[in-house]
Structure formats: C-alpha cells, structure tokens
Amino acid sequence: MHEPGSSTELDLARQELAELERAMEELPQILEERFRQRLCDVRHINHQLLMEQASLESRLAESSLGLWRTQWQALLVAVLVGTALVGLGWGASRQLGFRPSALRQAPVNGDRLQAAAPLSASILQVQAQGSSWLEVQDLRSQAVLFIGVLEAGQSRTIRLRHGLRLRSGRPDLLTIRIDDGQPEPFGLSHGQDWRTVMPPELRTAGA
Predict the structure, then answer these.
(1) What pLDDT sits at residue 130?
(2) Cα–Cα distance, 25 to 18 (Å, whole number)
(3) pTM attached to this predicted model
(4) What strands, in cross-sheet order, belong to the sheet with 120-128?
C-alpha cells in the first residue's frame, strides 16, 4: 500500500511537470511576441530619427537661404552707398570748379613749336590779394606743379618751362607777372576753364 503523503507529492510533481511542459511549449510564442514588440519599438524610433533629420535639414536650408539673403542685401547696400558717395564727390568737384574733362584737353595751338623749343627760364609769379585756391600744371605733360591755397599777401613763383596752365577758385583775387613785367589780372571769372600762360619767347615765335 502507498502512503497518502507519497501520493500527494507525486501528484504535485506531475502537475508541476505538466505546467513546465506547457511553459516550454509557449516559450517560442512568447519570445516571438517580445521580439516583434521590440522590433516595432525600433521601427518607431527610426521613424522619429528620420523625421528629426528631415526637420533639421529643412532648418539648415532656410538658415542658408537667410544668410545668402543677408549677404546679398549687405552687398546691395554697399553698392548703393558707394554710388551715393560717388555722386556726392562728383557734385562737390563740380561746385569747386574741378572738371576732369579739362585734364584731357589737348595743348593749345602751337604744340609742335613747343616740342621743338627748349625749356624756358622765364618765371611766372602769382600774387594773391585774398584767400584763393590755385592749381598749376605743366602745359605739355599736364603734371601738377602746384596745388594749394594762397592767402592774402602770399605769392608763388614757378618756372614757365614749355608753358603753364592755371585755374583758381577766386581768380579775381589773383594777379600774375612774368619775370620783371607788369602785374596783370588773372583774367578768368570763377567756374571757367584753364588759363594758359606761354613763355615770352614762344609767344614771340608764334606771332
């Protein structure tokens, strides 16, 4: 005869074994379900990363476009400011009597005679009765020999060379004299072009 306690333990063991067998049978299904859930989570995370990447690329593109627009606007402003400054400089030069076209004017008639003649030793003296701006150029090369302001009582002496040309902001306040000759008025009103002064020997030869 079997003892009642032994029979109960055997039944419990058999029950546990049956439960273990059922668990072993369900284990592949449980693992597969968990794998699918994990795979779904990974796909969701990957989708979020792709969305964030697309959003970041869009923001970068907008930022680059904004930077390009800013640089283009800065360039446009620089061009407009430069154009305005050039216009102001041109207007100021016109008011002061500067005429770039005058710098390109051909020498006066008789330039062939000047080319053949030696440099004159005659001296031109410009005397100021008041503050006056003055510019003096060599007639042949148009090199600037003097440019500045003569105050009242001041004078400037320059060798005539092949001839000179002069202009002034206040010609009415200037007189000119060649060597020991008599002073004479500068002779041009404000805003007119250059005045040409020839050496005496060239004026005699031209006559």
Answers:
(1) 92
(2) 11
(3) 0.43
(4) 155-161, 120-128, 174-178, 184-185
